Amino acid sequence: MIKTVLFDVDGVLLSEEHYFDASALTVWEMLISTNYLALSPEQYKTDFTESEIAEIRARVFKNDKVLKFLKSRGLNANWDMIYLTFSYQLIHLLAQIKETEQERIEQWLSQEMDRSTLLEVAQVLNNYEVEFDFDRFITDFEATTETKQGLMNHLDVLAKEKLGVETSIFKGKGSLWSVCEHVSQEWYVGDKNVLSSTGRPSVQLGKQGFLANETTLAPAEEISEFFQFFIEKGVSIGIGTGRPELETIQPFEHLEWLQYFDTNHIVTADEVLKAQKEVSGSISLSKPHPFTYLLALAGKNQDAAECLKQPLPLENGDEILIVGDSLADLLAARQMGCQFAAVLTGLSGKDARSEFEKHQADSIFDSVLDVKELIESIS
Q1: CATH number of the domain encompassing residue 298
Q2: Which residue among 211, 226, 257 closes a domain?
Q3: How far is CA 38 from the centre of its chain?
Q4: Residue 13 gets which letter from DSSP?
Q5: At what angle do helices 65-72 and 78-95 cross, to 10 degrees?
Q6: 367 and 232 in one domain?
Q7: Are residues 222 and 181 in the same domain?
Q8: Where are the alpha helices (DSSP H) in 45-97?
């Protein structure tokens, strides 16, 4: 009997599309804006039309093939996808000037790269005719069997292959990752919320953000009734999401969903990043690590270190259902010994069915609302 249901948010309850739009705009800005690599500043602006955003996304992520590839390797966080995509382009661009700028390249890759470093790189790149190459990303990453956070390690391998430089700066969530994250937040939450979201002011003002335009993956009122169903059945519900707290709580309030949850069991990227700094060292606690769901199950008042000591698989794992749209969610559920219900409303849509079947998801549904049938059938 299922006693607890933990939901992912993106691709399950809310659409990921605007996150992917913001991700593409982030990579694009960091390549062309004078605030970063400045390779085509005349093309940069903050008020792209929907068709222009679609065109940029299609170019940067190769009609979403890059996103789908990364998700198939268990990577779930948009910030990590941005970081991998931009860093790969950076390596590719540096490879085009290595014959004359090897000494500078070695210097840049010998320490953490922050925005000031990118501005130095920009000054040098603008003395050359260089070009992007979004086509080779998948080819170069298919050459490795790395999955999840290990994909970042492959950036260091590519730096050695393409630049002849031994480095370890790409493998962790360092300064460059933080720059990518901040630009992404500017695009997603907009000028009004950047400071409260990140603790840092905008580098580039003029972004309205996507936060106020969330799209639900089923009618909002039907999802409200869906949550009420669990309460009436005596089934506890919680959230384990890679979204930051602002981007979770604010939409839930606006959609009048928050009333159905104990916020102690709504775990977001903010709690995961905080725990990672406190207890885990270099190990990522984001999905597919089970920590997000373990904390959502225990409650945010649970000490992170104690939460991580929880023996896995859980003794009562068969009483817990995790509902997600990605391989990362499934892998987390498997480590916990929990049941897993896949929903086909994520990036790959119904095409994800074969992947979930391959990994033996316990249930596969077209919509999150269909989970109600599962609960009714076993109660």
Answers
A1: 3.40.50.1000
A2: 211
A3: 25
A4: T
A5: 110
A6: yes
A7: no
A8: 50-60, 65-72, 78-95
Q: Rounded to whole angstroms, how far apart are CA atoms 328 and 325?
A: 8
Tell me: do 207 and 226 sit in the same domain.
no
Same domain for 52 and 89?
yes
d(CA 128, CA 236): 59
In contact, 310 and 294? CB cutoff 8 Å: yes
pLDDT in tens, 6-60: 999 999 999 999 999 999 999 999 999 999 999 999 999 999 999 999 999 999 9
pLDDT in tens, 244-282: 999 999 999 999 999 999 999 999 999 998 998 888 666
Q: What is the pLDDT of residue 172?
A: 81
Do 160 and 118 share a structural domain? yes
188 and 123 both lie in a single domain: yes
Does residue 257 sit in the same domain as residue 322? Answer: yes
Over residues 287-320, the pLDDT tens digits come to 999 999 999 999 999 999 999 999 999 999 999 9
- What 3-state DSSP class applies to 378? helix
Q: Looking at the DSSP assignment, which residues form a beta bridge with residue 321?
A: 5, 339
Query: In which region does residue 268 sit, left (phi positive, over 0), alpha (psi from -120 to 50) or beta (all else)?
Result: beta
**Buried b / exposed e along 181-197 (16+ C-beta atoms within 10 A):** bbbbbbbbbbbebbeeb
Question: Which domain range does residue 233 map to?
Answer: 4-14+215-378
pLDDT, position 77: 86
- Same domain? 253 vs 293: yes
Q: Which of 1, 2, 26, 22 is nearest to 10 (CA)?
A: 22
Categorize the per-residue pLDDT at 379 as very low, low, confident or very high, splitting at 50, 70 and 90.
Answer: low
- The number of CA neighbours under 13 Å toward the Cβ of 189 is 26
**What is the number of structural domains in the chain?**
2
Q: What pTM did the predictor assign?
A: 0.87
Pair of tokens at residue 286: 């984001």
What is the distance between the alpha carbons of residues 352 and 364, in angstroms, rounded to a whole number? 10
For residues 197 and 210, the answer to whether their CB atoms sit within 8 Å is no
pLDDT digits (tens, 9 = 90+) for 59-83: 999 999 999 999 999 888 899 999 9
Collect all residues with Cβ–Cβ distance below 8 Å to 261 and sequence separation of at least 6. Answer: 227, 237, 238, 239, 252
Residue that terminates a domain, selected from 188, 211, 234:
211
Q: Kindly give the interhelix angle for 327-336 and 291-298, rounded to the nearest 10 degrees.
A: 60
